Amino acid sequence: MRLPFVKPLDRYVFGEFWKIFVVTALGFPVITIIIDLTDHLQTYLQRNLTPQAIALSYVYWVPRSMFMVLPAAVLFATVFSVSGFTRHSEITAAKASGTSFFRFIRPIMVGALLATGLDLGISEVMPAANRAHNDLLAEDKFKGQNQRYNFAFAGDLGRVYKIGTLNRVLGTAQSVQVERRGKGPDYPTYIIAADNAKYADGRWTLNNGSMHIFTDSGPGYSFAFRSMRDNEFRSQPDEMMSRAHLPDEMRYGELSRFITAMERSGTDVNEWKVERALKIAIPVTCIIIALFGAPLATSNQRGGAAYGIAISLATTVTFLMAVQVTKAVGGTGIMPPDFAAWLPNAMFAVVGLALLARVRT
């Protein structure tokens, strides 16, 4: 079905943009997989990993690589499509027929918006894929460590666990805290703190602690216990040794609950806040990078493919460097974490708007 407000020119421009976008979005992850596999294949074979496990681990790695690649794919598609339209005088012909440059690139902006939605979806799929990737490669199981200190991770059902010392061999944990954020009388918020815990029969038993329950409608209450069986705490010691639960292994909501719980304990969470903001800021980059690339691609009509590649690579490298710098600055608290995460987008948006203002429409 053809929409009445979609003109043949719109379909043509969108088609040229989308073809380049798909090739780039799929091609970059394949290249990174080949490079990474070449570097680590011997290590994986020494771990006696099967070819099927290695191949499947890279399938799970695709969302992670695509999450950062999509803005670059939008940039490549924008620069190469607009450069082609410029070299073949198609933009000039459109202007002569009464179509402004802004109207001409509208299908490209629609494509960038679709890429933003796709990247937001990938950001929610990526955590589970990252955990599966790490489990298949058994990264930490080959480090020979039997203990882990002062770590936290987000579990199922909105629970956050903080552990002082974990002993994998003995199946014990010291200084254990479990926090679950709830709502309503049937699902209240609670915090469990225990001196130690022991893993047996697929469950953890918490010893010498207290449980604090907080209700929305009335005062909370607490009680002490000598022993408590936590049926929801099922993670095995080996699994907890290899489970880093980094920000890229948590969805946006899980990371928000994790940050809230860590803030209550007085932990510095600036680095995690930057990572949380980037889960939205990087997908939005797809729109901003299209605004930046479209007018830039019209500045040289004779540059050809080499010019387009140079613009795209230079812009991509600059953006990635800006993200890393602002991530480090925001993580140390020099500037607010959310501001640090969005600063590269703001800078490219300003430059993009300035370039658009100079385009002859």
Summarize the structure.
With 361 residues, the protein is of the alpha+beta class. It has helices at residues 8-46, 51-87, 90-96, 101-104, 106-137, 237-242, 252-264, 270-296, 304-331, 337-358; strands spanning 147-154, 159-167, 172-180, 189-200, 203-214, 221-230.
Task: Tell me the number of helical segments per DSSP (H or I, 4 or more residues long).
Answer: 10
The fraction of residues in strands falls at 15-25%
The overall average pLDDT, rounded, is: 83
Structural class: alpha+beta
| Broad shape | elongated
What's the N-to-C terminus distance? 31 Å
Secondary structure: helix percent: 55-70%
Radius of gyration: 25 Å
What is the makeup of the main sheet?
6 strands, antiparallel
Output the helix-strand order: HHHHHEEEEEEHHHHH
Poorly predicted runs are none
Number of domains: 2
In total, how many beta strands? 6
Spatial order of strands in the largest sheet:
1-2-3-4-5-6
Architecture overview:
By secondary structure, the protein is of the alpha+beta class. The protein has two domains: 219 residues, no CATH class; 123 residues, no CATH class. It is built from ten helices and six strands. It has a six-stranded antiparallel β-sheet with strand order 1-2-3-4-5-6. β1 and β2 form a beta hairpin. α1 runs antiparallel to α2 and α7 packs antiparallel against α8. The chain is elongated, with a radius of gyration of 25 Å. The mean pLDDT is 83.
